[in-house]
Amino acid sequence: MKLDFVLNGKPVCADVAPIARLADVLRDEFGLQGTKIGCNAGDCGACTVRLDGKQVCACLVPAGQVAGRAVATVEGLARDGKLGELQRAFAAHGAAQCGICTPGMLMAADDLLARVAKPTTRQIEDALGGVLCRCTGYRKIVEAVASVAADSPALADPAPGRAVGARFLKVDAAARVDGSARYGADGWPEDALHLRAVRSPHHHARFAIGDLAPLRAKYPGIVRVLLAEDIPGQNRFGIYPTGKDQPALAEGYVRHRGEPIAALVGDKATIAAFDDADFPVAWTALDPILGVDAAKAGPKLHPHLADNVLIRGRVAKGDPGPEFAKAAAVAEGEFQTAFVEHAYIEPEAGYARRVGDRIEIVATTQTPYMDRDEIALILGVKPDQVRIVPTAVGGGFGGKLDLSVQPLIATAAWLLNRPVAWAYTRPESMAASTKRHPAKIRARAAADADGKLLAFQFHGDFDTGAYASWGPTVANRVPVHAMGPYAVPHVLCTSAAIHTNGPSAGAFRGFGVPQAAIAQEQLFDELALALGIDPLEFRRRNALRAGMKTATGHEIRASVGLVACLDALEPEWRLWRQAAEAHNKTGARRRRGVGLACMWYGIGNTSMSNPSTMRGALAADGTLTLYSGAVDIGQGSNTIMTQIFADAVGLPAASVRLVAGDTDLTDDAGKTSASRQTFVSGNAARLAGADLRAKLLRLANAGPDAAIRVENGMAIVGERTIDLAALPKDGRGNVLEGVGTFDPPTTPLDADGQGVPYATYAFAAQMAEIDVDPELGTVKVLRMRAAHDVGKAVNPIQVEGQIHGGIAQGLGLALMEEYIPGRTENLHDYLIPTFGDMPAIECILIEDPEPLGPYGAKGIGEPALVPTAPAILNAIHHATGVRMTRVPATPDRVRAAIRAKAGAA
Amino acid sequence: MGGWTRPSTLSQALAALAERPLVPLAGGTDFYPARVGKPIDDDVLDVTGIAELARISRDGEGWRIPARVTWSDLIAADLPPAFDALKAAAREVGGVQIQNAGTLVGNLCNASPAADGVPPLLALDASVELASLRGTRVLPVSAFVLGNRRTARAPDELVVGVRVPDRPSRSAFLKLGARKYLVISIAMVAANIEAAGDTVRAARVAVGACSAAARRLPELEAALAGAKLADMARIATFAHLAPLSPIDDVRGTAEYRREAALVAVKRVLEALA
Q1: Is ipTM strictly over 0.95?
Q2: What is the pLDDT of residues A687-709, one digit of tens each?
Q3: Is residue A403 part of a domain?
Q4: Residue B207 pairs with which residues in a beta bridge?
Q5: Cα distance from A784 to chain B (closest Cα, Å)?
Q6: Which site among A44, A772, A824, A892 would you substitute to test the B interface, given the most B Cβ atoms closer than 10 Å to its Cβ?
Q7: Which one of A233, A438, A677, A822 has the fewest CB atoms closer than 10 angstroms to its CB?
Q8: What is the number of other CB atoms lying within 10 angstroms of the CB of residue B134?
Q9: Are residues A506 and A567 in the same domain?
């Protein structure tokens, strides 16, 4: 139908199907791709627009209903090319991290502010509560909306050389708040063919594909059906050179629900209208192996693994056994965690096109260089024939470290010589992507009467699902970290990653350490209780300190800020504990509790080379450019690299132009994972900046402290002026270039896990105040204090943002998140925290500088999440006396534990 | 894609339904989520253009909430305390986006066991008005919602609205979920109490998400009649939950649901004491 309506104040007309979703019409007919599609089901709110002023999900509005009405999108918020006040507030407060939910947040807030000039926190939460955010933990969004009514000052640009440590505006903030940032599903070529996968509805099955002729006859718009035999190179991929076990398209046998068996490529309308029932396939379902216990006894899932064990990990020191006999207190327990979904609001998406004998992939990813090398194998081409251009990434958290759309769009574009685009649906994203490993952990800990730890034993079986993915990383990292950030004389920590017919478990913020911390930090609380020692004091007595050796025998000489973290929490720890105990004596219905947990986290890959290279340059016209291969997944590495590089050169951070993450334009800066970008790539950026500065100083024959300015194509270095245009230019128009490479110094671990697995560690302690409704088993986290030793906070806004977001995900892990294949494949059955679930958070940044770090900095991405769940679980114990050994601690589980305790008493 | 009809009068809508089966659609908040990644090939009857179904009204028989009334309309409406439970339910449906688009009647017709609107309607003793070219019929809510996703609507009928008798009462609602916003109920309770002084004259209590369709608790209601308001919470027992048949699902175990339902019933009654 011909549809007339008013769009962002202007009358428009389109010829669309009236039943089409408004979100699709806005994006496809009007090119307004600031409206994001996260679920197409009204669960995430990313597509929120205003319809006659009222916020609605554009994915749920039939286009026909907007006839004659007014629609407002994020693109309409700016006035005369200038960001509106609300947009500026989001940027200044760090309310946009990855930015994928930001348009929805802004439109919901815009609706609120039109009705309520000075909203309360509760009004803001109620109004924006229909939009999910996976990055920010929501508090900074609330602050941003509240500030619009409060006239908060803008952030000032720091002086040259003073960017590190400043609350510096995110370099890509404007694009995050005006809807112009292009994510995986945005900016596809007009002539792109679309792709759709046919996936297994079974956990475990054999299949035979039938005659495709009837399908082709019914759907003439399908130009190609890809099957396993069409993969040009090897139909195997995987993170590790030894772990290439995952087919791009299954070969008659599937190992998990959601595994792709075929890809249909055709015009957009045909692909959208395809009915999966029309695909000719005969399934023979096999008994699924679900859970590690079944896998140990079950048939082999991979021919090369006899017992379904992908890999084992081990750290051994001393002889723990005898210590338990002589201990004053022993705590032991079994703990269980679930599959956890990354639930980034941006589903996997992108397009590929063939350019001569090269393939270009423009897609959402955390790891462009690994993608390049993997795609080369799948296409059977050389790596330099593959160009990866990462789009803005709408959340990653480890889930976009694995290939998603890339193998099939690349294959299709390569074979058809046409651009091919694909965006996962939400259920597809949830079924096909990796998960956090479910863990079954047995552990015990012993301490003497003075509260000194004697020994710790730990074994964790990790359900690594169908394919290897990052399972080896989890199995290696867990035993190193499992005893926590403490000096423990006798340690035996082991792990196994075990294949099942679950979804592949891979990388998810913390690589298994959060699961281990749930066990260990609860057991240490038990030890403190048994010995009558305050839990904070117990941890301080045992905390690692500079000069001590870890369980792997690594002497950590500097930047061990755990005691400082605990000291920073202590005054409130005492006050909150006392207040909770006083509250519980009043006989109030809800019981209050305060819990604490610590963590440590090795920055970078475990005992592996993981270098980053950065390049920075001055152009003939004076433009200062940083070429960074580090992919910003919303956490802010683009900004961090800019700040560090600018200070190293000695020029204003605001003057840096950033070219980021294109494998043709930048050097390899590794993966955005393992909390490594600030430390590893940041060092490379610092070295690149220092190299460029050294070249400028040399040209000017100036001393090391000389001030540098760049004006009108002239570099003024100390007393000398250099005419940049007079210098020879390289192919990019640059006249001076600095390069830096950094690879953190580590050593391999021996059979007992002894060695130097990481160059540095982050430390933290978090405390949570919660209340529990004992009759209903519901838990509400009221407030948290988080003290994190980050070495140096390069950008405090972003560090706080990481802590808030980590706490949100840790809270979800503790209380609500459980992915069940086939059951929770959407964002209303799979629950992540909403606005109303987040506590007030106070961040305390401890800066115990790391001598190897750029300006002393370490990392924060994963450390932020690790202590949250055990702190909450310890608080539940403080409130109720029940020990939640299985997460998520859902209301029914908490209630059952309370009832069991009452029954036992 | 399928066909789409958006009539501006009820008689046009009924005429269209008489010709062929159509999927009625108002806010789309249940329609689209059921079709993620699937072709949309339904023939749809969009009711949002029908002028006579837009506004809440009151006549000699009571209140009428027609099919286009959204959750937000309900929240904003000037309604007596009997509707407090329904308004509370409206505030907890989805986010504001869903409340602005989704309708009470759509919620009823979708017939989810966890439909937030159904327990308050049961406690209001509401009935459902169905129209077709054959005429109009009125069914109690309990006779309209037959089970999980099943209603008594005939293919040629349209639910034009909900009727609520005009009986002064106070009401309360409690929804139990595993997070604050955008949450599907583990259990929910709505109650309306008609009182004379400190004594219950009539009580209506309904529980949702604990059976295939939300259910009233007639034995509890009988036990409450004549009791002191202050005693209501104490009177409720597990035996009163006999009409419920909770199941285990991803949101909670059956055992938990039964226990939580009683706690929620007691709390709602306590709030109305």
Answers
A1: yes
A2: 999 999 999 999 999 999 999 99
A3: yes
A4: B189, B215
A5: 18
A6: A892
A7: A822
A8: 12
A9: yes
